[in-house]
Amino acid sequence: MPVIRFITVRLLQAILVTLAVTLFVAFAIRLTGDPVVMMTSESSNVTEDDLNRIREALGLNQPFLVQYYEFIKSLVTGDLGNSFFRGPVRDLVAVAMPATLLLAAASMLVSIVISIPLGIYSAIHKGGFSDQVIRVLSLVGLSFPNFWLGIMLVLLFSITFPIFPASGYSGLSSLVLPAVTIGIILTATNVRLVRTTMLEILSAQYVMVARAKGLSERKVIYKHALRNGAIALVTFMGLQFGNLIGGLVVVELVFNWPGMGTLSVEAIAQRDYPLLQATVSILAIMIVGVNLAVDLIYGLIDPRIRVA
Question: What domains appear along the chain, each with residue ranges and CATH number?
Answer without folding.
Answer: 13-89 (no CATH), 98-307 (1.10.3720.10)
